[in-house]
Specification:
The chain is mainly alpha-helical. The chain has helices at residues 3-16, 25-29, 34-37, 47-65, 86-109, 127-155.
Length: 157
């Protein structure tokens, strides 16, 4: 198995299950309602805003993998449209799952040698750094989501 296949597998598992951490986004969110996803806890980001933020960077990398420009700015990475219903929440999640499938397929199809190529601009490093960075970023915020969910569940008791 080559490195692109491994990177794609790692990102897919973080989304859908099977990772070495035993945690994945789909399972973490399976019983989260739109009200819970949008509930502000302390000064933390909401679960919904974290999900959007995580996918913002998945989408940015995916766009480059498909030959488009890198068009991502940290200042917009939390610009989530209001979630005001279960349908809004489900729409966000469906986009996340679709983007996860698209990026992992794109990574799998990429020749391993491309991982050393410059990612859009020299200042961003190479493809490997950016793909691995998305995976690390994803796990970081997944941990936050799990903790926020635990606080939400504990506060209902």
């Amino acid at each position: 198995m080559n490195l692109t296949t491994e990177l794609a597998r790692h990102l897919r598992e973080a989304h859908f299950g099977g990772s070495m951490t035993g945690v994945n986004l789909k399972d973490a969110l399976k019983d989260v309602s739109w009200q819970q996803a949008t509930k502000q806890i302390y000064t933390f980001n909401t679960i919904a805003s974290l999900v959007y933020h995580m996918n913002y960077y998945v989408r940015a990398v995916l766009k480059v993998l498909k030959g488009g420009p890198l068009d991502a700015h940290d200042k917009y990475s939390f610009d989530l449209s209001p979630i005001e219903s279960e349908d809004d929440w489900e729409d966000l999640l469906e986009n996340v799952w679709a983007d996860a499938e698209a990026i992992t397929k794109s990574i799998e199809q990429m020749p391993e040698s491309k991982l050393r190529d410059t990612f859009w601009d020299e200042k961003y490093g190479n493809y490997y750094r950016n793909i691995q960075g998305v995976i690390e970023h994803f796990h970081y915020h997944l941990g936050q989501i799990v903790l926020i969910k635990k606080i939400l569940l504990h506060s209902r008791k």
